[in-house]
Automatic annotation (TrEMBL):
InterPro entries: DUF1003. This is Membrane protein. The lineage of its organism: Bacteria, Bacillati, Actinomycetota, Actinomycetes, Streptosporangiales. It comes from the Bacteria. The chain crosses the membrane at residues 35-55, 67-90.
Length: 155
């Protein structure tokens, strides 16, 4: 007789449901959604439907597998659409998550750039103030010329 003790952790039980990797499933759904959104897929589906309809409309009666109302074709297309829609939504959600992460990264980079720009602006303003107090070559040259003229005039 086994009793459950409250001071001991439970033994791990095996999950009865199958395990799947959500990341691998997400990547697969993105690949499928990416393919569903191409012209190649539209051409393939158009050719498939055209062959299906032409075969079932023109083949001998004993070789037709889906007569005129094409109910089996409708069922297959509905099944394909019922799987395609959630796969596309899953791919869009994953893209939204990636976009959100990229947006946050861009926002942080923009904040760092703004802080760097403000720092450089303050430094340039400080340098301008410091330079306004420093004698420039042109000012010194003009003062020396003026003093030279005063000395020549004074002789």
């Amino acid at each position: 007789m086994t009793t459950d003790r409250l001071d001991q952790p439970r033994d791990l039980r095996r999950a009865r449901r199958p395990h799947y990797d959500p990341e691998a499933f997400g990547r697969l759904s993105e690949r499928i959604a990416r393919f569903l959104g191409t012209a190649r897929f539209l051409v393939y589906m158009t050719v498939f439907v055209a062959v299906w309809i032409s075969w079932n409309a023109t083949a001998p009666a004993d070789l037709q597998f889906d007569p005129y109302p094409f109910i089996f074709l409708t069922l297959m297309l509905s099944l394909q659409a019922s799987y395609a829609a959630p796969l596309i939504l899953l791919a869009q959600n994953r893209q939204d998550d990636r976009d959100r992460v990229q947006y946050e990264h861009d926002r942080r980079a923009a904040e760092r750039n703004r802080a760097d720009l403000e720092y450089l602006t303050r430094e340039i303003a400080g340098l301008r103030l410091a330079l306004s107090e420093v004698t420039t070559r042109d000012y010194l040259r003009s003062e020396l010329q003026r003093l030279g003229e005063e000395v020549r005039e004074g002789r």
